Amino acid sequence: MQELGTSIHSAPWYCLPVEKPETRGSEDHHLSQWLVARETMLRVMVVEDSDAVCGVWRHMIDKIEGLLLCGEYGHVMAALVGIAKNQPDVVLLDIQLRGECGAPVLQLAMERYAHTKVIVVSNYADDIYRRHYINAGAYAFFDKSYELKALRRTLEQLAMARLNRGDSYAD
Questions:
Q1: Beta carbons within 8 Å of 151's beta carbon, 6+ residues apart
Q2: Domain with CATH 3.40.50.2300 in the chain
Q3: Where are the alpha helices (DSSP H) in the chain?
Q4: pLDDT digits (tens, 9 = 90+) for 102-157
Q5: CATH code, residues 42-165
């Protein structure tokens, strides 16, 4: 609920009051349309320790219709908290984070958030890593140096499926 004295413009989007359509003004109607559109967007969380790579992912997510960045984390523990807090639809996961292995992020997503699709994007793209992470439940695995177009296509397909169906996305 919105706290007293809080401006509607500073309140979190989920706290905004919703009025009946016939009582909305033009500005409120556009806000309502935006909120509905936001609810159908695919929520993407990034787990990556490189600021430069995070910038690339932010740019890619921003350019694909239907995607919404819901969090960025550079450490495993922060990412584990972030998944519980944000409950993303998709996680872009680097498997090597400042000396930490990203596997616990995938494990938590598979155990507690089965709807979350984890896409591993790593420079460690040898077949042994690919097989391990795919067998552990990753939705896809991409080499971040050479497979950015394939990653983008996958994100576009997931976003389009979500927008077309409104409530879920392709498996």
A1: 60, 92, 119, 121, 140, 142, 144
A2: 42-165
A3: 26-40, 51-63, 76-86, 103-112, 127-135, 148-165
A4: 999 999 999 999 999 999 999 999 999 999 999 999 999 999 999 999 999 999 99
A5: 3.40.50.2300
